[in-house]
């Protein structure tokens, strides 16, 4: 956890947040030390049950936000196990049920260590079910399972999800932006360094450490083109796994933001004008694309994607039309365009992939608030199912 050894940033919010986070880590370490003793008596474990809600008008296909609550479990269940009990919640308070018959069921589907509370505490990611046990309409995860037939499993599909997000302060300004007016025009911020170039790095570092401690397949972070905007990458991972890890990573960003006084949003175009929007480029490959001569399979996939552009766009995030303007490294929402190393394309073939003649493609269309389970399912359906 090297980043916590660094000096606190001299902003008020950053200063307190860093100290607060450091002392919470200390508690975690002593909790770990005590865990041994407790195991011999009666180990108490906090399981944070996490699920996607049903925000009004979003109905699962566009955008989901996170909810969670804690279950105290009297005997440890190891992270990774799915022996956690089903639970329920009041769906009328999350946009997932009517008031009179409002219980929804939480069915554990993925668990990992809780890096904030520390060992033996865990996160329990859940699918939401109706009272009769059928999948809730906001449950997009279960739909992936129905497309994973043996021929699809044999293609061993992999996804790399580039999650962009924007930080806001409590007053509703982009984090680090001046009280009045605007920062410098875009240019020095992407992958920048220095107090004037990047805002909010202490949260970004804490989030990276937390994701690593949770065992998520996080593969990198970078500051984005608009100041106060950042990205983390999850992958390469399978279609269910990438969504599960993205969901936990999103929850962790919101949760750590509480301690840092920072609100994180996945809104696709948080600032109108000459400011980049926030996307979720999805890198995708099949076994056929990754083997020698895989470029043929990549081109065939792009051809199929060109024919279902409208269907994909419809499900690629709420408000994405404000982001996909044809400017700011996007293709216009009404145009399907592919190209090598072309950041103004809908689908980009990365230069190293073009040079090697094999690898993966990048779908640049999804908005930051897209449902990762939906993107993964649609890429599989369009490129591998007739
Ligand atoms: P960009 O240059 O577009 O910013 P990034 O480095 O942010 O690219 O993200 C690239 C993503 O592609 C990473 O998440 C990485 O894990 C993923 N990736 C790499 N190889 C593959 C592959 N064969 N299939 C799917 N995803 C891949
Ligand atoms: Mn109550
Ligand atoms: Mn990237
Ligand atoms: Mn990016
Ligand atoms: Mn990208």
TrEMBL record:
Catalysed reaction, written as an equation: L-glutamate + NH4(+) + ATP = L-glutamine + ADP + phosphate + H(+)
Pfam family, one: Gln-synt_C
Occurrences of domain GS catalytic (ranges): 140-386
InterPro entries according to UniProt: Gln_synt_N, Gln_synt_N_sf, Gln_synth/guanido_kin_cat_dom, Gln_synth_cat_dom, Gln_synth_gly_rich_site, Glutamine_Synthetase
EC number: 6.3.1.2
Keywords: ATP-binding, Ligase, Nucleotide-binding
EC class of the enzyme, as a word: ligase
Protein name: glutamine synthetase
The species this protein was found in: Sphagnum troendelagicum
